[in-house]
Amino acid sequence: MIRIVTVLLIQILLVSCTKESKPLYQWSFNANKLKSTIEKNTKTVYKIHSNFETPEFVNGIEGTALRFDGYSTAIKGNLSQSLNTPSTISAWVALETYPTDIASFFSLTLENNKENWIAAGLNQFGNAVITVSINGNEKHCFSKQIFPKFKWFNVSMTVNEDKLQLFMNGVNSLSVLVNDLNSQTRFNELTIGANVKEKYLDNRYPLTHINGIIDEVKLWNKALDSDYITKFEIKNRSNLKAVLAIPKSRFKKNFNRPKYHLLPAANWTNETHGLVYYKGKYHIFNQKNGANVFLGQINWGHFSSPDLVQWTEHKPALSPEEAYDQIGIWSGHVVKDDQGVPLIVYTGGNEKVNGMCLAFPEDDNLINWKKFKENPVVKGPPTQYSRTDLRDPYIWKEKQYWYMTVGYGIVENGVEKGALLLYKSTDLKKWKYSHLLYKGNPKVDDSGIFWEMPVFWKINDRYILAVNPTPHDGKPAINLYWTGDFINEKFVPDSKLPKKLEVINRLLSPSVSFDKEGNTTAIAIIPDLIPSELHLRHGWAHLYSIPRIWKLKDGEIYQTPHPALNKLRDSLKTFEKVSVNESVNFKIGQGHQVEIIAEILPKQSSKFGFYIGKNQKNGEATKLCFDLKKNQLVIDQSKSSQTELVPKRIEIGEININNSKTVKIHLFIDGSVIEGFINDKEAFTTRIFPKFNNSDEIEIFSENGFILINKLDLWHLKGNNNLIDF
Question: I want to staple 690 with a disulfide (CB 3.0 to 4.6 A). Which of 87, 196, 260, 695 is the partner?
Answer without folding.
Answer: 695
